[in-house]
Amino acid sequence: MLASTAMQLNLQCFLLTIFLFPLHSKAGRPAEPVYDTEGHELNPGEYYIIPFNCSRGGGLFLSQRNTSLPIFVRQDISQLSNGNSVTVIPVTNSLPAAEQSVRLSSNVRIQFVSCATCLESMAWTIGDPEGTDSRRHVVAGYSKRGYGQSNSQFRIEKNGHGGYRLVFCPKVCKLCRSACENVGVFIEGGKRWLGLGGLPLAIEFKKT
């Protein structure tokens, strides 16, 4: 009788282990990687951010709206243009840079690789509200303005119609939930500027 009871308990424990293990394994699994146009995992190397599937416009580059900082991120109107290259760097990754990979829904920093005329940091950030509609643009060159790191963190998400989209999820406080906004394109003065809100810009990453 005791032997039979022990066998039943062992069987129950075995079945419980089989049932729980996949759940535990899945919960500890890292987020899905982001892939470039060639199907390779995105890492902190150099890439062009281009419209998905040859949609309207070309790559991204820096452009001044006036003679002062910041410098604004703008989309080229030519589909033949790749724009300026960027690096995408994971924010919370303890691995060496060469071993890091960029993953969905994770905070990243994006910055242009080179700019011969630039004296400031080329990391992307979100600027102050501007204009009658309080539009907030994606800008660079704010390193001496004291902007916090939270204003320079973006996330990459899958776009519903293919490709990826960039979102900005500011943290107001440690216990507050982030209110994410899409990074879209707005036409002002016949030019295509990146800013928060509106329809997301569907993008993909092309290795330089």
Short description:
The chain is α+β, with helices and mostly antiparallel strands. Helices cover 12% and strands 29% of the residues.
What is the topological layout?
Blueprint: H1 2-27, E1 46-51, E2 60-63, E3 71-75, E4 86-90, E5 107-112, E6 125-126, E7 138-140, E8 154-158, E9 164-168, E10 181-188, E11 191-196, E12 203-207
Antiparallel strand pairs: 1-4, 1-12, 2-3, 3-7, 3-11, 4-5, 5-8, 6-7, 8-9, 9-10, 10-11
Structural features, described:
The chain is an alpha+beta fold. It folds into 2 domains: 1-30; 31-207, Trefoil (Acidic Fibroblast Growth Factor, subunit A) (Trefoil), CATH 2.80.10.50. 12% of the residues lie in helices and 29% in strands. The chain is built from 1 helix and 12 strands. It has one helix spanning 2-27; strands spanning 46-51, 60-63, 71-75, 86-90, 107-112, 125-126, 138-140, 154-158, 164-168, 181-188, 191-196, 203-207. Strands 1, 2, 3, 4, 5, 6, 7, 8, 9, 10, 11 and 12 form a 12-stranded antiparallel beta sheet that branches. The chain is globular and about 45 Å long. It starts with a helix and ends with a strand. Residues 14-26 and 144-148 have low confidence and may be disordered. One of its GO terms (molecular function) is endopeptidase inhibitor activity. Keywords: Signal. InterPro entries: Kunitz_inhibitor_STI-like_sf, Prot_inh_Kunz-lg. It holds the Pfam family Kunitz_legume. Residues 1-27 form the signal peptide.
